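Translate sequence into structure tokens.
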Amino acid sequence: MTRYYDAARQRLIYVGQEATAAYWDAHWLSDDAAQAALRGDDSLVVPETRRRLAPGSRVLEAGCGTARYVYALHRQGYRASGLDFARQTLRVVRRQVGELPLVVGDVFRLPVASQAVDGLWSLGVIEHFWNGYQPILDEAARVLRPGGYHFLCFPALTWLRRRRAARGAYPIWDAPAAPPGFYQFALSPRLVQHDVEASGFRLLHQRNLFGDLGLREEWPAAGRRIGALVAPPPRLARRAAAALLNRLTVRACGHSVLQIYERLPA
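Result follows.
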């Protein structure tokens, strides 16, 4: 994947293959989507949700993909639902996990009543739209009740990437049109915060995620050494090494950032 730097908007531009519904169907269905959903995933979404919302709360994931996080929340007693535009993926998941309320839809126009949701998760969504994400933020503000929570995760222009950009590590892109094959941005957390708060939210918490991934992406040679470090068995030692590496690198090198916002009264 090729990357460019847009200095005016403080973001990296990833170019490879456009993130269309057909792309995501092919991506997710290459690893059985139903099995991914059934495995669930409670490493991030469930703990962060439980810190702020009690079981029984209504939680929507807008851009749910294989619905593994929706299923994890469902198992913990939340009224969890998911929306995605990857129609074939959701069809496969529904065959195996029919109890999940999943709908094919558009994150720019959520089929949800105003102030009907207690929590909304957006994991790796806003960065895929060249023309901007403000309508997505406005929809989150509309469907969340006052005092509800917006959990927002996206690739970030963190310290290491800013340093590399300042040293000319990425070619510059300053054209108004998207490059062919535009895939996603790595966005400035500060600028995203400004835009989210303009939609009626208050930032409560922010932390970087996936330091090892960010380091591997920026320094492939280091990534190969990291892979050798964390790959050998036994599994417990591998997990401990990976956790330590992430802890050491996440602040400066994190690939993504998690921001948690509270919906303010209108």
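Note: The radius of gyration is 19 Å.
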